[in-house]
Amino acid sequence: MRTWLFLAGAILAEVTGTLSMKAALEHPALYVLMALGYACAFVFLSLTLRSGMPLGIAYGIWGAAGVALTAAASAGFFGEPITPVMGIGIVCIMAGVVLVEVGHRGEEKPASARIDLPPRRGEDA
Fold first, then answer.
1. What are the respective helix, strand and coil percentages of the chain, to the nearest 5?
2. pTM for the full model?
3. Theoretical Cys-Cys bridge with 34: which of 2, 20, 59, 94, CB 3.0 to 4.6 Å?
4. Residue 113: pLDDT above 60?
């Protein structure tokens, strides 16, 4: 559950950074929010990976959800259109991520592919 919360944080932070970039064109002070959004996105994405989610799955979901949410939010905040073709494209992206996730389930990575990280300060070994 914690892994998915980290991933959700990464997605929301990335979308916030991207929307702030567009808004900063009119309000330059928002470049600070853009930078914070992107920095937080990468911190949360690294926490997602540290929690055990495979990179291909995490990055795929992060990217696809970011595209879909950014398109929807930019339509709401900036009045940018979402055409039927764009909608179909977003659905195809999301379907592709679902297929990657479903294809990954049940696959156990070999011991040689695992990276055992030392525990963080304050964690039990």
1. 75, 0, 25
2. 0.79
3. 20
4. no
